[in-house]
Amino acid sequence: MKNRIKIERAILDITQEDLSNKIGVSRQTINSIEKNRYVPSTVLALKLSNVFNKNVNEIFELEKND
Amino acid sequence: MITKFCEAEYRRLKKIQNYQYLIPNHYKKVGIVLLIASIAALITRKYLFEDVDIVQEIGRKGMLLALLLITLSKEKIEDELITKLRGQAFAVAFIAGVIYTLVQPLINYLVALLIKPEKAIYSDLGDFIVMWFMLVIYLTFFYMFKRYR
After folding, report:
1. Which end of chain A is more exposed for a tag (fewer CB within 10 A), N or C?
2. What is the distance in angstroms between the Cα of A53 and the nearest Cα belonging to chain B?
């Protein structure tokens, strides 16, 4: 699964730390999601979608092998 | 009647499943202090009062309790990734514990056969060593998973 979190963060000009504080997780968790090492739960994906004000589908995208 | 019984059972099961078994983060420090005290008690016993079994008992139980406190204490930010890593570390520790319990006595026996065949006897591991092993494996893997998350 691909994600655009880094890009969306850049658009809002916020750091991983800022984003993690907004959705109540650790900075390392945001880093793991950005690097595709961890697939977040639907709840966390919806929280991210709220912060970026975009649909979940616009932030996360399935890849061929998913 | 049966439906009500099933519903009650289901509710009980869900209660166990959703039970928050973690304790506040500051218990980690309590656990570390207790762990150091237990190790100190066990070392002191080894060199000073070798025939006092109660010191060994208290030291061992204290060490298990300390490791359990560290295991169950929350991280500063306890998020869903940490919960997942905890689950994975518990699984590794459980499987490693069972394999260790099955294999280690055999290894001990074979090594004893090679070194002192006349004194080689097969004996199972004690409960302390198995519990200690599982807790240590859990903590090692949890902190490794956390570091490379």
Report:
1. C
2. 22
